[in-house]
Specification:
The chain is mostly beta strands. Helix content is about 0%, strand content about 50%.
């Protein structure tokens, strides 16, 4: 079992930056892929980025590529999402996810989820 708690969300102006953290508890996090998804009101949950258990492989959605960076520190049982050059369309509830299976852009393939942290980007 893995429990996930996100933090770092908030209100920022367009062009600004935010850094999200995902603190995990449970012995298997270091062997699990970690990912970030987001969901805006009235929209489906969408893939943002993921990172393999060893940090060697990362994947990004086209909408955030070049602006967001995912990373992890297994010694701290924490995953991160650095978000730069934020746009109003990045406004959403951001969720951290983990899975002992491989990385995937499909939400239903992730086993564990946090409660989410709100990111609001004003224009």
């Amino acid at each position: 079992q893995v429990q996930l708690v996100e933090s770092g969300g908030g209100l920022v102006q367009a062009g600004g930056s935010l850094s999200l953290s995902c603190a995990a508890s449970g012995r298997t996090f270091a062997r699990s892929a970690a990912g970030w998804f987001r969901q805006a009101p009235g929209k489906e949950r969408e893939f943002v980025a993921d990172i393999a258990w060893n940090g060697f492989t990362t994947t990004y959605s086209d909408s955030v590529k070049g602006r967001f960076t995912i990373s992890r520190d297994n010694a701290k049982n924490t995953a991160y999402l650095q978000m730069n050059s934020l746009k109003p369309e990045d406004t959403a509830l951001y969720y951290c996810a983990a899975t002992e299976a491989g990385t995937s852009s499909v939400a239903r393939q992730w086993q564990y989820w946090g409660q989410g942290t709100q990111v609001t980007v004003s224009s």
